[in-house]
Amino acid sequence: MKTCDVAVIGAGPGGYVAAIRCAQLGLKTVCVDDREKDGRPALGGTCLNVGCIPSKALLESSENYEKARTKYASHGILINEMAVDLAKMQARKSSIVDAHTSGIAFLFRKNGVESILGRARLKSVGEHCILEVASGDKTELLEAKHVIIATGSSPRTLEGATFGNRIVDSSGALAFEEIPRKLGIIGAGVIGLELGSVWRRLGSEVVLLEASPEFLPLADEKISKEALKQFRKEAGWTINLGIKILSIKEIESSVNVNYENSGGAIEQDFDRLIVAAGRVPNSQAVANDDLGLALDERGFIAVDRHCRTNLPNVYAVGDVVQGAMLAHKASEEGAMVAELVAGQKPEIDPHLMPWVIYTSPEIAWVGKTERQLRSEGVEYRTGQFPFSANGRAQALGDARGFVKMLADAKTDSVLGVHIIGPFASELISEAVVAMAFSASSEDIARTIHAHPSLGEALHEASLAVDGRALHI
Ligand code: FAD
Ligand code: NAI
Fold first, then answer.
1. Across residues 391-407, what is the average pLDDT?
2. Hey, what domains does the chain have and what are their CATH numbers?
3. Contact present, 286 and 153 (Cβ < 8 Å)
4. Which atom of ligand 2 is nearest to the CA of 52?
5. Which ligand sits closest to the CA of 364?
6. Which residues are CB-neighbours of 332 under 8 A, at least 6 positions away?
7. What are the pLDDT digits (tens) for 276-308?
């Protein structure tokens, strides 16, 4: 039987980072993952294979196409004929994915992590945990002193919606071989908005069907309102909120969706339907039932703040445990657990988790929303600055949106930063670092920001907290 110090189940951003960090810390580490391509392990989990990376590749390609179609003329760049070569776009996406997944294989070799292709199941725990690893018709046992479960999540399914050619989950929606003429999407959450953006920019008529009457309820209210206003201005989007799906039927060459809103029942046919109604943790079948691995009421593996499960020497990280389903959250937890196993004392502050939605305009935030502060009875001051008054945004030709900063009314500590606008995904890091160092809005206001840069909008928002923005 193979033995090791740490067995990691899953090679997504939670598992592969945990494995690399364990190996860096001198622990003999094995990482088991069941995802394969062409008979070889396809490391990197959902994120690299069918999530963050391929979606961002297609978002970039489709955004370039839309810019060329609608914006280049204003720069004096005239293109007479333009077309989309979808096969080439998809091939570019696949080569980026392949480069990343083989990059993880390289990092495993470099750090001495042993990678096993197979499906792992925890059979017994204690001083020495035993895992069964199944691959094809072969089964082997693996003994480990510590186990890190990083099995991720899978798309939620809806009654009547069987995934196939026309009804797809996010993985299917990343692999379309032709641009749907009419695309329905169930769920106006992060995936619905990002993948809807891709296909809308490439020419699909996109209809989003969202059960919640509120748009993007996780984001700050002002940001959600602005986002909805901006998206509704774009040709090709219809965003229907507060609907109830009544039935989904795949008919010969289309998908028929019946739903109702406050005005009554509506029936629509789509060439393709994406179901993006959330994801569920892969917590079933990862441990033998008699071990009693504790799950919470929503099916996530129950863990403490150091990602310890109720079983001795067994940890769980990433999408399979509570908290945001984000790659960076999974990775930070993976690194934290590796350091704990190696005897260190790491900590993560879950309140400083940045969120980014890669739409156009982009949306990003960290910390508390106004609604949260109001409900907690915290007194706060607000500073807001529009990108329309920022020189770099004007030069980019994208001056939609704003930066909003929330600071404690008494101490001036920054409590939240919310951005909608160009490169919000990059700008948010400054806010995360500032908050990690307990910065006040005045600390940011007194920090020199290069000119002209988008960061000046964050600077101005911090000045605005004290009512002294300079350029508005
Ligand atoms: P996963 O990445 O899901 O990896 C788990 C791995 O474990 C998988 O390879 C799985 O096959 C394997 N596995 C499961 N069970 C077993 C078993 N019993 N034995 C062996 N192997 C097993 N997050 C962001 O932060 N930014 C983004 O831009 C972003 N974009 C996304 C876009 C899409 C379309 C999707 C679907 C998700 C996106 N996410 C994004 C979310 C992100 O992908 C996840 O939060 C992240 O992958 C979670 O990492 P993980 O390691 O917990 O699990
Ligand atoms: P989500 O939770 O963001 O959105 C799902 C939406 O579907 C919700 O608004 C929900 O109200 C709606 N919904 C659920 N059931 C419905 C029904 N029957 N009818 C109509 N609407 C329904 O989940 P999503 O978009 O599937 O993404 C899953 C997770 O993946 C995200 O929460 C996020 O953590 C991660 N992700 C992160 C990205 C990023 O960081 N940029 C990009 C993509 C995904």
1. 97
2. 2-154+280-348 (3.50.50.60), 167-277 (3.50.50.60), 353-465 (3.30.390.30)
3. no
4. 42
5. 2
6. 348
7. 999 999 999 999 999 999 999 999 999 999 999
